[in-house]
Amino acid sequence: MSNSNLAVRTVIFSMLGNVALATIKFLAGIFGNSYALIADGIESVVDVFASVLVLLGLKYSARPADENHPYGHGKAEPLVTFLVVVFLVVSAGTIAWQAYQHIVTPHKLPKPFTLVVLAVIIIWKEISFQVVMARSKKLKSSSLKAEAWHHRSDAITSIAAFIGITIAIFGGEGFEVADDYAALLAVVFILFNCYKIFRPALSEVMDENNYEEMTAQIRQISLTVPGVKGTEKCFIRKAGMEYHVDLHALVDGELTVTKGHDISHQLKDKLCKVIPELGNVLIHIEPYEGNVN
């Protein structure tokens, strides 16, 4: 199975789970008198739309390079991640406003069965987080990472709701608003996770060269290619699930242009074979003068 297909299947898994959970949360929240659960359901609905965006972004970013996009369409992935963050911020604002409205408006105590519902949701969401995060690391996908953190933020929201409902139920009359304050606490966690999703995507769009481990690996592989005496500049930028590399390779200055050209192709082929997630690799040949950076 290709990386793109695995990523798409992962998003569909998330989407179907969020549809089911949103339905369960809304029903449990309405019949169980819990706004924290309804707020949780709002976030799950937003997550469904966010998953649709991620799915579209993955499909578009997987398109091959063309005349107008020689480096492919991978940059679509972090752009979609930005949209997902916007969705999360809007949902956090909606939850905060509705929680405030419930705090200033008297309402009934939540019902005990809502705790059972939340316990099941928390377990499922943490499992979903672990599955999607593992695949995001495997595929080096920023949008899948955002998708994973959706599950974690949903789990945190549910934990806050669980705590708030527990306080309200055991505290009895006068503690009804604990459920609503739990929803406000969840908003803080959601916004914090928004930053954690946003920052790596911004780094990708701005072509930040912060891939020290891969740089070291590229330099080490380069030295195994016959004729390569060292490396100088090595710039890496990420686009979707691929990494594009600009590398300066040092060779004997007395070699012919043809021989230097052959070495550069051998080096490129070796790098792409050992590190399959590399996309475009540009090798610049430099004469070796005895000093290697």
From TrEMBL:
It comes from the Bacteria. GO terms for molecular function: monoatomic cation transmembrane transporter activity. Coiled coil: none annotated. It holds the Pfam family ZT_dimer. It is a multi-pass membrane protein. The chain crosses the membrane at residues 12-31, 37-58, 79-100, 112-134, 155-175, 181-198. The keyword Nucleotidyltransferase does not apply. Residues 212-288 form the Cation efflux protein cytoplasmic domain. GO terms for cellular component: membrane. The keyword Membrane applies. It is found in: Membrane. Residues 11-204 form the Cation efflux protein transmembrane domain. Keywords: Membrane, Transmembrane, Transmembrane helix, Transport. Belongs to the cation diffusion facilitator (CDF) transporter (TC 2.A.4) family. This is Cation diffusion facilitator family transporter. It comes from Algoriphagus chordae.
